[in-house]
Amino acid sequence: MTLHDDTSPSLAPTQPSEARENAAPSRSGLPYRIRRGDALAASELGRACGLGPATAQVLLHRGLDMPDEARAFLDPKLGGLTPPDSMADRKPAAERLARACKRGERVAVFGDYDVDGTTSAAILGDVLEALGAEVHTFVANRFEGGYGFSMPALERVLACKPTVLVTCDCGSSDHPRVEEARRRGVDVIVVDHHLVPDEPLPAVAFLNPHRPDCGFPYKGMCSAGLVFSLGAAIRAELGARLDLRAWLDLVALGTVADVAPLDGDNRALVRAGLRLLASDRVRPGVAALKDSARIRRGPMGAFDIAFRLAPRLNAPGRLADPTVTLELLRSRDPKEARRLAAQIEQLNDERKRIERHTTEEAIAQVEERYGPSPTHGVVAAGHGWHRGVVGISAARLVDRFDVPAIVIALEDGMGHGSGRTPEGFHLYEALAGCSEELERFGGHAAAAGLTIREERIDVFREAFSARAPRPEAGEALPLVDVELDAAYPLPTVEDLMRLEPLGEGNAQPVFAIRDAVVEESRIVADGQHLKLTLRHGRKILTAFGRDMAHRIDELGDTVTAIGHLRPDLWRGRGALELSLEKLLS
Hints:
585 residues, 3 domains, CATH 2.40.50.460
């Protein structure tokens, strides 16, 4: 869960610490830097691990220079997951829910409205139902109580008269609602991964790896992973034979969409989930969603979740009632799943239209108020803007102006806003400095949400700009992991997929292709994006430049292309596509 608005998933995270992080200076005036490579060591490691030298060099950059360590990274096993016995309250939570399953008790499962929340509710709801409980699942609604476990949400849940209530991806800070449920005779179990207040939570059990007294060493698990672990504990309490691996596709969806670190336990869980997502055994709802997203047969990576599946799953929660997402994830009927996926696709198309309109108006407002090159943080606010897309629009403003940005939707004298920031700036701290102007705010360094009275917007705008100077520019030149040449040939799809999942904590490697011949260039997607066919030696690959359509007239016969390689499933047969970060002609 993220506060107020779902953070747009990113696959351009902070690079992990690396043993070989020094970059060679730009050679002969090259407009990029290259990490120092060792072609001989890469060749030797590649032979030991069955990899080409380019992919092996990426492993060397990440400190994986011993074959055994590299193989363990490339092929993570579920059997290597951290033993969960030290997770605080895991056993009492499992005991209470196992008793509910034995007795056929009514259990309410409540999740937040983002992908982690809905997948968590779906996993736990399915597992408890399979083990004998009567289950009612619910998700938060940002338009009726807002994010998390609000009082309207509590009343909605208690209307089904449960004996046990489990909150997923929320609840750590919801002491009044947990206490009220307990006062009404309901046993509350909280499963969450957000920051833990000092005040003890009045719950029967509180699973959160960030509890100070929790001895579970891996702290990166989101709620989808936590409920998967809890499901295993419930199964053990009952001595059941339920195969929990059937829910790993949902664990992968929740983990990647929540931008959880893709290392340690998460790496093993998501890798297994990606295999399930790409198989014929995937659940009907996800199969229908893949069809809507036009994901073809073949290997899947974290990119497919972050940019193709997660935005669709989030769309209902942004615009309307996210219950349709929960219903899709739990559906067992392919026909019903296709109907729900079509409904979600329609909402996602509407989301894109609304977001495009809001972003265009926000950009125009910023340029009118701050000029074309703002030097401090910007605040855009407007009537008629949809609060469900302000976070995406704020991210677009950051991309456009490279300064911290807040976008606020105004309605009935109140504003609901969301903020994003370039790397190197702490957004939450800036908002804390403006807290007197706000009704409510929350978030973290890179993303935050707020509620404000309309009459305070101008004062807040000035206060925020004063506390949000443009972050100091980092290195001007792009940093490349591997420049593809005779020593480092183009990697294979199979090699690249062994690095998956790629994302937070396991950054996508950056490749450079110098002097690639432009065989074809065209503008796609309503004039927004650039599509190239490039020849590199004897190899042909496509390149896709998001929002680069304006570059088409600048292209010469050859280009230097820098970006991330991934399978080109449209062409198939091991073809690659380069997702462009920089295009130098």
